[in-house]
Amino acid sequence: MTPVPPHLGILGGGQLAQMLSLAALPLGARVTVLEPDAQAPARLCAAHLHAPYTDRAGLEALAACDAVTLEFENVPGEALSALEGRVPVRPGRALLERSKHRAREKQALQAAGARTAPFVAIETGADLDGALGQVGGRGLLKTSELGYDGKGQARVSDEDGLRAAWQQMGRVPCVLEGLIDFEREVSLAVARGPGGRVAFGPLIENVHRDGILRTSVCLEGDPHEAQAREIAGRVTAAWDLEGLMTLEFFQLADGELLVNEVAPRVHNSGHLTQDGGGVSQFEAQVRAVLGLPLADWRPLLPCAMVNIIGVKDQEADWAGIDALAGTHLHLYHKGWRAGRKLGHVNLVAPDAATLRERLARLERLIP
Amino acid sequence: MTPVPPHLGILGGGQLAQMLSLAALPLGARVTVLEPDAQAPARLCAAHLHAPYTDRAGLEALAACDAVTLEFENVPGEALSALEGRVPVRPGRALLERSKHRAREKQALQAAGARTAPFVAIETGADLDGALGQVGGRGLLKTSELGYDGKGQARVSDEDGLRAAWQQMGRVPCVLEGLIDFEREVSLAVARGPGGRVAFGPLIENVHRDGILRTSVCLEGDPHEAQAREIAGRVTAAWDLEGLMTLEFFQLADGELLVNEVAPRVHNSGHLTQDGGGVSQFEAQVRAVLGLPLADWRPLLPCAMVNIIGVKDQEADWAGIDALAGTHLHLYHKGWRAGRKLGHVNLVAPDAATLRERLARLERLIP
């Protein structure tokens, strides 16, 4: 029907793949996801290959797509090898190898000219000697791989605590990050097409609770957006991104932005772009991966998002949420589990003051 | 996961059912459509019962849903009988029997206090005598049932032409409508929950080409919105609507609105609500049918829509459409056919002047 590559493959079938599929469908693209979970949220709006990420037949099916993207960075290298050279995988292996490994990621960020918190890569016990001093005496020990939402992290403030924490993490490769005193946490995503054309998303302010994102807010005219775009543009060019990448920043008291983490994909903090009157982060990733034109995609309206985390039916005022002006409910069709992301509520308003006032009411409706 | 009735049934699986399903999913609802076409657009994001609308097993499956709605008014009465009393069908049979029959519809509109064009119901040849005179000498002969997008219509300006046209239509029940000189065509949709709570959509200006909607525009502060809401509110209350209803109006030179047609469902003219920063007509119908709270749902941004009708790949500048700021492509995954609605492009802008300017450029990109 259009020159759009009609068939998009996605590694992973969770809520991010679900929302990528919901965005891809109206663009004329069919979507196939490879996902071992039988109850994967994406199954409701995409063809679901119910198999491990390394399943030969599943990977053959993805290799037959016009392009393949992903919803998580920890894709087995084996899966990438099976696809490489047969179908464009966006983002590609080199970028993923970097962003799935905290130490390599920080080294590559610094090489690209982006500032990060001070850190020491911990490979062996010897690396622990004096490491705390190098990062300022207080730090966060994080496993180099597979950590997310605050999992696989420990706060340490002395040598013994550091050694005990590393012991407890099974002496796996880690990074020790210096603890940063920051004013706020912000994020920004950038989509980059195969041709290298860059399209920026908005600067978003994020508030975490127990290490998990709780609330995001996007207002026009944030004075730090230009700096975030400059850093994001430099990193994505140096890393030759194809697809979409989200950067999380610490904003220091002096206004400088340090890169905290990078996700080579849509990110929870960008969900508010679904309902702000612009192109969503999901459509932006799909367009970049399929090589479709895309201009900067900041929302036209002030918008916000509140996560629904481990909330049981009776705990939230669902009718109240629907009744509140400007709300957009997004549920993932996942079963309840403590601390599990089950959905989010986007909020829009004609102006920033109204958004703030509605957001305060919305936050009272969601535990 | 929420108290939302989780399972919505839809009679029909075309693009309207597809977009209803895309709107229902994030609300936490599963969707099942009953649709005889194997290639139905809704199959991509809903469970597809591939069977005739009167299929016993298919209707049993719909009867097991929490609520049933529809994407077209010509549902066989047999199907409605099989569902009645077993599952809420919204809108219900009485309203559908009215809105699927032009003569009954106009009588019911007038009974509800809404003005229409003058008309004469043609049941037998005798009804033709002097009918043209009663509607002002020039008229449109329309079949009472199954006409849409200008099909089943003939312009007549004399007795012989009228008789010939009726002959050609197979002497089926028809209405002869007086030709109206109107300033413009507008539409407005209203959602009404089981409790009778009404939520209005925006007033939309529509431009047709060859009897098919080509372009819709929605700007804030239309001076005729209040009148349209007043009429829509009166009709939906009198007809005891449950679900969503769209009214199409002729606006006369003196500003008065005559009701042209009524659709008991989402309507092509309301597609622009998908991307205007508010609740879409599709979400509005789903919320009303599932009994979820809903406030008025006019877009927060100036927005417009251009239909993609019988356009072949090479005939439209797809890259140009994606590259134009504020565009949102919506393709239905339907094969090409002359005059077939294959998709639409929504357009948003921060202000009305920018919208007009972008719309002029967009219309040049779509034949």
From TrEMBL, chains A, B:
CC annotations in GO: cytosol
Record's keyword terms, sorted: ATP-binding, Ligase, Lyase, Nucleotide-binding, Purine biosynthesis
InterPro entries given in the database record: ATP-grasp, ATP-grasp_carboxylate-amine, ATP_grasp_subdomain_1, PreATP-grasp_dom_sf, PurK, PurK_C, PurT/PurK_preATP-grasp, Rudment_hybrid_motif
Stored Gene3D superfamilies: 3.40.50.20, ATP-grasp fold, A domain (3.30.1490.20), ATP-grasp fold, B domain (3.30.470.20)
Domain ATP-grasp: 106-290
Domain of life of the native organism: Bacteria
Gene Ontology molecular function: 5-(carboxyamino)imidazole ribonucleotide synthase activity; ATP binding; metal ion binding; phosphoribosylaminoimidazole carboxylase activity
Known EC number: 6.3.4.18
Pathway(s) of this molecule: Purine metabolism; IMP biosynthesis via de novo pathway; 5-amino-1-(5-phospho-D-ribosyl)imidazole-4-carboxylate from 5-amino-1-(5-phospho-D-ribosyl)imidazole (N5-CAIR route): step 1/2
Catalytic activity: 5-amino-1-(5-phospho-beta-D-ribosyl)imidazole + hydrogencarbonate + ATP = 5-carboxyamino-1-(5-phospho-D-ribosyl)imidazole + ADP + phosphate + 2 H(+)
Pfam families: ATP-grasp, PurK_C, RS_preATP-grasp-like
Gene Ontology annotations of biological process type: 'de novo' IMP biosynthetic process
Function: Catalyzes the ATP-dependent conversion of 5-aminoimidazole ribonucleotide (AIR) and HCO(3)(-) to N5-carboxyaminoimidazole ribonucleotide (N5-CAIR).
NCBIfam families, per the entry: PRK06019.1-5 (NF004679), purK (TIGR01161)
Complex formation: Homodimer.
Protein name per UniProt: N5-carboxyaminoimidazole ribonucleotide synthase
Organism of this sequence: Deinococcus radiopugnans ATCC 19172
